[in-house]
Structure formats: C-alpha cells, structure tokens
Amino acid sequence: VNQVANMTLVSSACDMVSTAYASTKESHPYVRSVCDAAEKGVKSVTEATASCVQPVLTTLEPHVAAASEYASKGLDKLGEKLPLLQKPVEQIISDTKELVSSRVADAKDAVSS
C-alpha cells in the first residue's frame, strides 16, 4: 500500500482530491456538516475494527509479508512498463492537452490543404 501511495501519479491525484475535498468543505457549510459526520463515523468504525482484526493479522503476518513482497515486485515491474505512473496528474493532463492540440492542428492542416 505504501509503495502504491508513493507513486507520483497516485500521490498527486490524492493531493488533488484532498485539496478539492477541503475546499468544498470550506465553501459549503451543509456539505461540511455531512462530511464531518461521515469522518467521525469512519473513524469510530476503524478504531472498533482495528482491535478485532489485530489478532487475525498477527496470525497471518508471515503470509501477509510474503504477499507484500510479491506485490512489491509486481509494482516495480508495472512502474518500469508504465512510466506514466511516475508523472504527476498535472503533467499528464498538460501532455494530453498538448497531444490533442497537435493532432487537431494536424487535422486542420490536412483539411485546408
């Protein structure tokens, strides 16, 4: 999970969502009250679940470690094959706009000639 969260694309997308969420809560008092209630509910459920799940996680720890190592290797390979994952969302959007503009310009030129 940490490795995925540290990927540039994922972390920049999370930052964008977090900023939008905070801005929305700040701008809309009714949304803020609903979000605050939802956050408290999630926090309570998480705390209650953590104490119940901990004994199971302790028992499964060797298996979780093996799965984690396997997943880590797979993510490394995925990162090699998809360099896009190492770019921030803003750059991907900018690159996409540039590519689309270029293609549209090429199409215009082809039609006008």
From TrEMBL:
Entry keywords, A to Z: Lipid droplet
Subcellular location: Lipid droplet
Chief location: other
InterPro entries: Perilipin
A Pfam family this chain is assigned to: Perilipin
GO cellular component, one term: cytosol
Domain of life from the UniProt record: Eukaryota
GO terms under biological process: lipid storage; positive regulation of triglyceride storage
Family designation: Belongs to the perilipin family.
Protein name: PLIN3 protein
Organism phylogeny: Eukaryota, Metazoa, Chordata, Craniata, Vertebrata
Gene this chain is encoded by: Plin3_1
